[in-house]
Structure formats: C-alpha cells, structure tokens
Design brief:
heterodimer, A: Rossmann fold, Rossmann fold, 2 domains, six-stranded parallel β-sheet, 13 strands, 18% strand, B: Rossmann fold, five-stranded parallel β-sheet, 6 helices
Chain lengths: 381, 178
C-alpha cells in the first residue's frame, strides 16, 4: 500500500493561524469530493477556527483515565478503522497520555501515513528537535515536546503560516488567541516582539532550507494529484547537480594558526548577515603538530559556540579537497586568509591559491580576509 | 668578448633569481616586501573577560605588558551557558556580543603591534569558564580586572579562586579610582 502524503502547517507561535489554514484546505478538499475527516482538532475555544471546521466529519476522541483525570486523546485505531482519504490532525508535537499506542502524536501520524491515509498536521517551529536549544536561547522558554527534524524533512509539503509579530500581538490583545485572563501573562512572557521576530526568522529559514533540500521536479501540486503516495521516499533526495536555489552556505578555509580565528569571525559575521550556515575547513597535508592541535582545539570550541561545523580533511591537493567539500556542502561563498607574498618566479611557476580556487570553483564567490597586522606593518614601513 | 658576454649573462641571471626568490633575497631587501604572517609572541598573556567586555584601561595594561615582553595576548571571552541548555550548545546571542568584542580587542592590539590568539571559553558560570580556560590554555601570565561598577571585571570571590587555583603569575588590576 502506498504511503499517504503528509502536509505540515508550520508556524512561529500559537495563534498564527495554522489550524485555521489546515481546516480551510481540508474544506477545499472535501468540496472537491474527497473523503476528509477531522482526526483531532484543538480549537482552543477560538470561534473563527471552529467555524472553519463546520461540516467536516469529526472522529470521536478516545477517553483515557490518568491519575484520576479524564483525558481525551486522538483515537488512532478509530482513524485506521475509518480509513478516510485525508485526515486532519492538530498539534503534531503533542505527548499522548500513558496507555495509548504511542508516546507521541507524531508517531500516531506516522502509522496513519503508513496506512495510506494522507495527513494534514500542524506544529510550531520551536518543537523541532534541532532548533529547541536555539529557540530556548532566543526566547528564554524551553519547549518540552519536540518532534524529530526528519518528520519535517520528509514531509511532502511544508506550509509556513507567516504573519508579522505586530499582527500576532494585536491578535493576542484582541482576545483571538487566549482567554482574557491569559493575555497579559502571555504578553509579559513569550509574546514579545523580539521573541516573535527571532522565531519568525528561524521559521522562515527552516522552510527555506527545507525547500532547498527537497529540490525535486515539480509534481502534482496538490494533495490528491496523480503521484499521490506513489513516489517512494528515497526518490525525494537531494539533486546535487541542481543549482543552489535558496540559501547561502559559507566556507572558511583556514590553517590551524591564530590568524584563523579572525577568518572564522569574519566568515561568521557574513554568515549572520546572509542567514547562512557556516563550515570551517582545514585541509591537512600531514598530522597536526602539538601547536596546531592546540589551535584546532581552540577552533573547535569557537565553532561550537558559533554553531559552525569544523571539518578536517586529509589531502595533498588543497584545491581538489576544497572543490570536493564545496560540492558536497553546497557552498556558495569561500573565505580565505591573505595569501603569503611570493616572488615573480614562484608566481610564474605556480598560480597562487586564490587564483587556483577561483578557477576551480566557478559560481562560488571568493573573499580574501585582510590581515590587519600586515596593514599596520606596511604603514610603519 | 664572447666569454665576457656569457659571464655577464650568468651574473644577471643569478641576480634575477636571487631577487625573485624570497628565501635567497638579502635580509634588507626581504623586509621591503609584505611581512610574513603575524607571528605568535613567545610569552602568552591570558586576558579573560565576560559579556560587558574589558575596560580600555584594563586592555591597555594587558597589551603594554604583552608588548614589553614581546608576548602574545590571549583575550578569552567567557560565555555563560544557561543550565537548561547543553554545555556544548551553540550560543548565537552571546556570539553576537563576543565576536565584536574580540574584533575590537584585536584592533587595539594591532595598534600596539601585539600578536593576538583569541579564545572563547564556556561554562555554567564565570568560575566554571575560568576553570575550563586554565585547563585548556598554556600561559605565562594571567591578567584579570577586578569588578568595577559599570566596567565589568571579576568579583572578589572569582579572583580569590583564581589566586588559589591558577598556576603562574596573576596580575589583578584594581578598578580605576574614577
């Protein structure tokens, strides 16, 4: 049985309209004659959201008694028995009450997809496992319920529900997200413009990366097109020959020397401006000396603070190794230190590293990071 | 005549090679070209500081010391990692503080002609980051600024801890009277 298609509605925070949009699209599919059910809806008493659910079949919930409390959860078996074409399931990151088939709702969703049922689901960006720490540092709020990144990476479609932080705060103030008594605490804590802006940036970047990673030939365009469920997951892999469509990726080429710190810092600044990933590469032509090892350890600590990736590759031909790494990592910018001075005969015999890199890496921008100490020395001479 | 011409050609060829290859060039001529990459000085002077950054007074003292000893300044930014984050988590917010500070220190050091070998150390607290720094770095001297209102620096307990636990010479800079 072909696996169902998974479409995720992703948002930066509660209240952006993920559930609303999911219901709208579900309604559209139902009107087009497809069999659509609501597997689980968390309307949060938002009237506008409830209106969107009107007319859709709502599957009964499954009651669980846990520590004397009655909890209503999604009924996985009920969905599988009903076997609709499309099931709408809210709150992908939800943790199920003990006693259900799975610990997490995303695991339920996987089983629904495996049964050949298409799923529309919703999740907020801070629930992505790999972004959890970053979001905690940005907002000061740690989210306990996480989903594996692979779930989003492997989803057939990810729809970003984006509104400006100001609009979201207005929506919150107008009582469209939380009840009156919860508005002020929300404004005092999580719902601050700086928090929401940071989350929005993370969400936009995540989806941009996702688009890039899924560079696949345009398919049916809809949930129920001709290729629904027919495409094996492995076919949705990176096409390394395709052009880099969306994001930049920077590579700092260094040697383990104190100068390298400056190149890494410069590259990191550029990466910040471009919202790009950063790799640091040393092409080791031999084993590092004790001093070089010390520098590498320091660079590793710097890279971990910056969220960069330190790569150490063995090879005699620096240009060939850089060429390979650039191809593998999808690098768009290469930054190197100031090449050492060479005599005219050396220049005649062998072109400089920057020239060779330029020739070997068409389409990759090359930037030479100036060495301030050299400028000072030139000035003093 | 032919021999003399041949000798002249040989002499000229040798001169061209000597002038072209840096390693064979006389020292005086070699200095006129771009200098070799910034060398690392012999002595290492550790200069730790936290998020507000060092005062220019403290930095200048450390740089003068490094210059007088032909040493290398090792400015160490100490990043505090919140308890709910893994100790090795990326720290984008603190990086945005640390990197400009390291750049500013390096710029100042360039005006003193002091080589720099910058570091970032992380820990749950400044004390923890200081301990990591001592474990990771080899150094000859450690220069720390005592806490001053509005000027950063380390509190007396951290300095007392350093004096008890850090090997080597430690120079504690008093806060400015101003």
């Amino acid at each position: 049985m072909p696996r169902g298609r998974h479409k995720i509605f992703l948002g930066m925070a509660a209240g952006v309209g993920k559930t609303y949009r999911m219901l709208q699209e579900g309604q559209a599919e139902a009107e087009a004659g497809h069999d659509v059910v609501l597997g689980y809806l968390e309307p949060h008493d938002r009237p506008a959201t409830l209106v969107q659910a009107d007319g859709l079949e709502v599957l009964p919930r499954r009651g669980i008694t846990y520590r004397g409390n009655r909890i209503e959860e999604m009924d996985l078996q009920g969905i599988l028995n009903r076997a609709p074409e499309l099931c709408l399931i809210d709150e992908l990151a939800h943790t199920n009450a003990p006693g259900l088939e799975h610990e997490k709702r995303w695991q339920d969703v996987e089983q629904v997809l495996d049964a050949g049922i298409h799923v529309y689901s919703t999740v907020n960006i801070q629930h992505l496992e790999s972004l959890n720490d970053q979001v905690t540092e940005l907002t000061g709020t740690r989210v306990r319920e996480t989903i594996p990144d692979a779930l989003v990476a492997e989803a057939d479609e990810v729809v970003l529900i984006d509104i400006t932080p100001q609009s979201l705060i207005e929506r919150l103030r107008a009582g469209k997200i939380y009840k009156v008594d919860a508005i002020q605490p929300a404004l005092d804590n999580f719902f601050k413009v700086e928090n929401l802006s940071a989350l929005r940036e993370v969400a936009l970047r995540q989806v941009a990366q996702d688009v890039e990673a899924k560079r696949i030939p345009s398919g049916d365009g809809g949930a129920f097109g001709p290729s629904v469920g027919a495409r094996p997951r492995d076919e949705r892999l990176l096409d390394t020959a395709a052009p880099q469509a969306v994001s930049e990726r920077l590579l700092a080429l260094i040697t383990p020397h104190p100068r390298a710190q400056r190149i890494v810092r410069r590259t990191w600044r550029s990466a910040q401006r471009l919202g790009a990933e950063l790799d640091i590469l040393w092409v080791a032509t031999r084993d590092p000396t004790a001093e070089q090892q010390e520098q590498l350890d320091a660079l590793r600590r710097l890279a971990s603070v910056l969220g960069a990736h330190l790569l150490i590759e063995r090879g005699d031909d620096i240009v060939a190794v850089v060429q390979r790494v650039v191809r593998e990592r999808g690098t768009t910018y290469l930054l190197i230190g100031t090449p050492s001075s060479r005599g005219p005969i050396e220049r005649l015999l062998r072109p400089s590293l920057d020239h060779r890199l330029l020739r070997a890496l068409p389409g990759v921008d090359l930037r030479i990071v100036a060495d301030r100490t050299l400028i000072r020395k030139e000035e003093s001479e | 005549m032919t021999v003399a011409l041949l000798a002249l050609v040989v002499v000229l060829a040798v001169a061209v090679v000597v002038l072209a290859v840096p390693a064979l060039r006389p020292a005086g001529l070699r200095q006129r070209r771009s200098s070799p990459p910034a060398a690392v000085g012999s002595g290492r002077i550790l200069f730790p500081f936290g998020a507000p950054g060092p005062t220019s007074r403290a930095l200048d003292v450390a740089l003068r010391l490094a210059r007088n000893e032909s040493g290398t300044l090792v400015p160490v930014f100490l990043a505090r990692v919140a308890l709910d984050l893994p100790l090795d988590a990326p720290l984008p917010r603190q990086s945005r503080i640390a990197i400009p500070l390291q750049e500013a220190v390096e710029q100042r050091a360039a005006s003193f002609e002091v080589p720099v070998d910058a570091r970032i150390e992380r820990g749950r607290s400044y004390r923890h980051a200081l301990r990591q720094m001592i474990d990771h770095e080899s150094y000859d001297r450690l220069v720390v600024a005592a806490w001053a209102k509005g000027g950063g620096g380390f509190d007396p307990e951290d300095i007392a801890w350093l004096l008890r636990n850090a090997p080597g010479e430690i120079i504690v800079l008093r806060p400015s009277g101003n």
